[in-house]
Amino acid sequence: MKQLNIGILGATGAVGRQMLTVLQEQGFSPKDLRLFAGPRSAGSRLSAFGQEWTVEETDPARFQGLDLLLGAAENDIAKKYLPLAAEMGVQVVDNSSAFRLDPEVPLVIPEINPEDVKSAKGLIANPNCATIIALTAVGALHRYARIRRMIVSTYQAVSGAGKDGIDELLNQVTAMAEGTPLSQKVFQYPIAYNLIPQIGGFDELGYSSEEMKMQNEGRKMLHDDSLLVNCTCVRVPILRSHSESITLEFEKEITPEKARELLAEAPGVKLWDVPEEQKYPMPLLTSDQDLVYVGRIRRDLSAPKPLYDRSLSLFCCADQIRKGAATNAVQIAKLLFE
Ligand code: A2P
Predict the structure, then answer these.
(1) Is 129 a catalytic residue?
(2) From 40, 53, 77, mutation site for ligand 1 pocket: most ligand atoms within 8 A of C-beta
(3) Residue 38 above 90 pLDDT?
(4) Which pLDDT belongs to residue 163?
(5) Per-residue model confidence (pLDDT) at position 1
(6) Active-site residue, from 233, 242, 316, 317
(7) Whole-prediction pTM
(8) Domain spanning 131-320: which superfamily?
(9) In the prediction, which pLDDT does 154 show?
């Protein structure tokens, strides 16, 4: 791949740091690398590509000359800086939710809708982590039998709340073991030995913002506004891999055997479905690697005939920081520059 001038906005966070590793793994070798963060990190050093790089406080003037800017900061920071970079001719791939539903901005999972990068006008959005993992898991099934309805329950790792979320779980586990007071800033309740059925604010129907992303972003990427999604998102005391239980209703008939055959060949997926040998996806098994593991594939016993023949349930897991964020963003960049 040709050498690029690459920037990362939010380089010191959980996703930003992972982007550095994934860029290297995916064959990028930057001519120049500019690492932007907030004032507290300015002057700190990060190592990547065999050398040390100094983190800079974000200054849009320093976007000049970049070929690619990866966004790994929160919405307000993304909104403040990334459109400026795109106007300066920089190709931007943003991991925040700020631009995901903007009709002018493609929202892309390379295994699902790679062709959408062609309509980009400087900015491409990286989808929500739980949505990336779910759609990568079911994409091959959708291409074969067309999904009409999805019922999803997520078990989401604390890494979805960034580096501070990871630190909060680790600190609370230690505090509980030592019997010292818990410090709690990121989550609404203690997350150690607990789970919290709220990610984001609730709407008037009682769904959280995280739950609605699965439907809204799913519809955009599958180009199907009739897709029906009922999602329940739960934060769990797991460090970095999201798990999801998904029940699917299809337009055409599909058997569990056919689903396994399709998923064995599906890009970005590892079929891991031998229940009698206790092989099924789990968060520890799927941490710090790029594939979405899929298993527990079976009929939906509750679906009445003839819907029974058009229904499946499955379980999937993938690393939230990698495929749910950094890896997907770098894969989009690869589509743009390769
Ligand atoms: P910093 O570490 O200096 O605060 P995470 O989601 O893992 O918490 O990461 C958030 C990222 O966004 C961090 O790299 C953080 O840098 C960065 N960030 C915070 N404030 C700004 C800002 N004003 N400009 C650019 N990046 C920022």
Answers:
(1) yes
(2) 77
(3) yes
(4) 94
(5) 81
(6) 242
(7) 0.98
(8) Dihydrodipicolinate Reductase; domain 2 (3.30.360.10)
(9) 99
| CATH 3.40.50.1100 holds for 5-127+325-337 | no
Asked if 301 and 309 touch (Cβ cutoff 8 Å), the reply is no
Task: Indicate the Cα dihedral angle 22, 23, 28, 30, nearest 10°.
Answer: -150
- Of ligand 1's listed atoms, the one at least distance from the Cα of 39 is 3
Average pLDDT over the chain, rounded to whole?
Answer: 98
Q: Where are the beta strands (DSSP E) in the chain?
A: 5-9, 32-37, 45-48, 51-57, 68-71, 91-94, 123-125, 147-156, 228-235, 241-250, 269-271, 292-298, 311-319
Q: Report which ligand 1 atom has the smallest distance to the Cα of 15.
A: 7
Q: Which residue of the set 129, 231, 233, 316 is catalytic?
A: 129
Q: Give distance in angstroms: CA of 39 to centre of ligand 1.
A: 9
Residue 321, pLDDT > 90, answer: yes
Position 2 scores a pLDDT of: 84
Ligand 1 center–CA 261 separation, angstroms: 43
The boundaries of every CATH 3.30.360.10 domain in the chain are 131-320
Cα–Cα dist 251/58, whole Å: 49
Instruction: Round to whole Å and give the CA distance between 67 and 310.
Output: 46
Q: Which tens digits make up the pLDDT trace of 257-271?
A: 999 999 999 999 999
For the chain, residues classed under CATH 3.40.50.720 are: 5-127+325-337
Q: pLDDT tens for residues 282-303?
A: 999 999 999 999 999 999 999 9
